[in-house]
Specification:
The complex is a heterodimer of chains A (about 400) and B (about 300). Chain A folds into 2 domains: about 200 residues, 3-Layer(aba) Sandwich (Rossmann fold), CATH 3.40.50.2300; about 140 residues, Rossmann fold, CATH 3.40.50. Chain A contains 14 helices and 12 strands. In chain A, helix 3 runs parallel beside helix 13 and helix 4 runs parallel beside helix 5. The longest helix of chain A has 23 residues. With about 300 residues, chain B is mainly alpha-helical. Chain B has one domain: ABC transporter involved in vitamin B12 uptake, BtuC (Orthogonal Bundle). Chain B is built from 11 helices and 2 strands. Chain B has a two-stranded antiparallel sheet with strand order 1-2. Chain B starts with a helix and ends in a 14-residue tail after the last helix. The relative contact order of chain B is 0.20. Classes of the chains: A alpha/beta (about 400), B mainly alpha (about 300).
């Protein structure tokens, strides 16, 4: 009796097992591979981090739907809170987990600067999806570190080219004295001088300064064509406001750090109008694979917007998965694969890494403030001549 | 440098000096009556300007269009609210700790300042971004050879100086001022003479905080922008101005305010290296002045501290 009972249960188990095997089909046959994502998922810039995470998750989900994919992918998203100390902790957690083959990491430059050593130490190949400080890729020789988005070097090269082409000759530069502001000053000055622009004066300001009348009075005396500001929105608002108080009639030019809606919320009347700024990347709808990305993102139904750098997170994750498909789930092999990435197709356009793992095909978009919003230059009324920049 | 630009620098300096002096007067008043340093003063100022900004949105919604009427409503509501906040801080945070070591009051007000600042950042709608304070004053300007003298700047400096003179008259010419000075000089004797000590302390804190609110509104009208962090540096500068002028002396606070503004302007204009160091220069000179005259440029006449 006992024996037959056992046999019966064994039989039913075997039946169930074979049934489930038959139903799940090829999924069980695939090996599961872990990949990581790190970004600011909480705190002041969490909108950027969540948009990036969703985009990376979308890339993973789409790959898992692909019947031709060799592996089943699992994403491990971690929060760096845009704080270097937290970033180092989560990066270590990811890098020491041997199941993780590669990762897409960091929106904040300061965090990325702190974590690249860890990735190198544990041989974890990463692709940066948002941080723009050049030193993340150029400040070291780590084969593990790559970046799909452009840097402030590309941004300022485009800025210098664009502004000199508009016919401006002389500049006054104001920058905040953080690494961000100083970096912008350095690269913009370099590219501008190469193109024959003249810098009449450079002013460093602290990032909590309220009154700029002394610096601006001096700038008024210098009478430049353009006032360039390297820093973030709050100070840009104050400077633009106080330029008007002192009657300075110069074109105002910003950097990626001022391209936010807060710039318009902080300025009265038409003071913002005509401000020019530059940003790595392009609006999603202008990207080569933008429509596909936006449609899939919409379909996935995430709660948050993908924000400015979401497409880069998607592109970085897709590239990482392409590599794993090609060389298998092995950190060293994946690093070697990424070193040779050349004209790789992605939704942000073709990706080619140089010796430092930096994408050389950097996409920079010029924006102009028109009627209370940032408009891509080519689509603006300034480009077709309906409106004119200051002094033109 | 031509005379027009010199005039521009001078006008900038006077504007800054008036604002600093208004903040410094608050520090000096608090120290005078209660021997306390209230570090939340700068953030109370910020609270004043945010109250003003909120009132502006309110009156705009009510359909009041006249800018002068708007300014009057903004000033009245903002100053009374902030004065009430100042009195509440005195009543519930400063007075109970009167017999505790002064360090405790310094700490508690420092923490209160941070709490106010963070509360505005987190709970005010979109509080972490700068707000566009309206330009309600006439913006006509006279061009005096490279120097744009604007009507709003002149009005603001005039109003600021009038408030400072008014405060001075209040302290030195009225019965209330007499009572404040009596409490400042000797608390025990003042009580024996029938002065309501608690009331005078509360009124003094209300006056000081009201002056800060005025400075906050002035700041908003001048820069057309307010933000949650604006009180931090203003508070520090006002405090330094009060110290170099001589804590407890209202003339010292005014002198200190203008001196600090002058130093900043000179630092930004005359120093050959980057203007990033103008605050370093100004605070450096303050340190030197404090080493030279530890009790301030105008020492308290009736100092009983050793």
């Amino acid at each position: 009796m006992k024996f037959t009972e056992n046999r019966r249960s064994f039989l039913s188990f075997a039946l169930a097992a074979s049934l489930s095997l038959g139903l799940a089909g090829p999924a069980l046959a695939k090996e599961t591979v872990k990949v990581g994502f790190i970004g600011p998922l909480s705190g002041g810039v969490s909108n950027m981090g969540l948009g990036g995470r969703n985009s990376a998750a979308l890339a993973v989900a789409l790959r898992n739907q692909d019947p031709n994919a060799k592996y089943e992918y699992e994403l491990e998203p971690l929060d760096d809170e845009c704080k270097p100390n937290v970033g180092v902790q989560v990066a270590t957690k990811l890098a020491t987990n041997r199941k993780v083959v590669g990762a897409v990491t960091h929106y904040c430059s300061a965090v990325a600067m702190g974590t690249v050593d860890i990735y190198h130490k544990f041989n974890l190949p990463v692709i940066v999806w948002g941080a723009v400080l050049p030193d993340i890729t150029y400040g070291n020789d780590y084969a593990e570190v790559h970046r799909v988005n452009g840097t402030m070097i590309n941004q300022n090269e485009t800025a210098a080219k664009f502004m000199t082409e508009q016919g401006y000759k002389t500049w006054a530069i104001i920058h905040d004295t953080t690494d961000y502001g100083k970096g912008h000053n350095k690269y913009f000055s370099q590219f501008l001088t190469e193109r024959g622009g003249e810098i009449l004066g450079t002013f460093g300001v602290t990032s909590d300064q309220q009154d700029f009348t002394a610096e601006l009075t001096k700038i008024k005396e210098l009478n430049p064509d353009v006032v360039y500001f390297g820093g973030l929105t709050p100070i840009a608002v104050r400077i633009r406001q106080q330029m008007d108080k002192l009657g300075i009639e110069a074109q105002f030019q910003g950097v990626s750090g001022i391209k936010s809606d807060a710039y318009f919320a902080g300025l009265s009347g038409d003071l913002a109008e005509g401000t020019v700024t530059f940003l790595e990347g392009a609006p999603a709808e202008k990207l080569p694979g933008g429509e596909y990305f936006m449609a899939e993102y919409e379909k996935a139904g995430y709660g948050e917007d993908f924000e400015a750098y979401g497409p880069f997170a998607f592109a970085a994750m897709s590239l990482l998965l392409d590599g794993i498909e090609e060389v298998g789930p092995d950190r060293k092999a994946l690093t070697a694969y990424l070193a040779d990435v050349n004209e790789h197709n992605s939704i942000t356009g073709s990706v080619s890494f140089d010796d430092h793992g930096q994408n050389t095909v950097a996409l920079i978009t010029t924006y102009v403030a028109q009627d209370g919003q940032w408009v891509v230059w080519e689509d603006s009324e300034y480009a077709d001549g309906t409106r004119k920049l200051t002094g033109k | 440098m031509d005379i027009g630009l010199l005039g521009q620098y001078l006008a900038n300096g006077v504007m800054l000096g008036t604002m600093y002096a208004l903040v410094a007067v608050g520090f000096t008043l608090f120290f005078g009556v209660l021997d306390v340093i209230k570090f939340s003063h700068g953030d109370v100022l910020m609270l004043g300007s945010f109250t003003g900004f909120t009132v502006y949105i309110g009156v705009l919604a009510m359909g009041i269009e006249n800018p002068w009427l708007m300014i009057a409503v903004i000033l009245i509501v903002s100053i009374t609210t902030t004065a009430a906040v100042g009195a509440l801080i005195a009543r519930y945070l400063v007075l109970p700790l009167k017999s505790a070591p002064p360090l405790n009051i310094l700490l508690i007000t420092l923490m209160l300042g941070t709490a106010i600042r963070e509360a505005v950042r987190l709970f005010y709608p979109d509080g972490s971004n700068p707000k566009n304070f309206p330009a309600l004053l006439p913006t006509a300007s006279v061009d005096l050879g490279g120097f744009a003298l604007r009507a709003d700047s002149v009005i603001l400096v005039g109003a600021g100086i009038a408030v400072i003179i008014g405060l001075n008259l209040l302290i030195n010419r009225t019965r209330l001022g007499l009572a404040i000075r009596a409490v400042a000089q000797d608390e025990e004797t003042a009580k024996i003479m029938g002065i309501n000590y608690t009331l005078i302390v509360l009124v003094t804190f209300a006056i000081g905080s009201g002056a800060a609110a005025f400075a906050g509104i002035m700041n908003g009208l001048y820069y057309n922008e307010v933000n949650f962090g604006m009180g931090l540096l203003l508070g520090l500068i006002g405090f330094s101005a009060a110290i170099i002028g001589g804590l407890g002396n209202i003339y010292g606070a005014i002198l200190g305010g203008f001196l600090f503004a002058g130093l900043q302007t000179v630092g930004a204009v005359a120093l050959p290296f980057a203007s990033a160091y103008k605050d370093v220069f100004a605070f450096g000179v303050v340190i030197a002045l404090m080493a030279w005259k530890p009790t301030g440029l105008i020492a308290e006449r009736s100092s009983d501290r050793v």
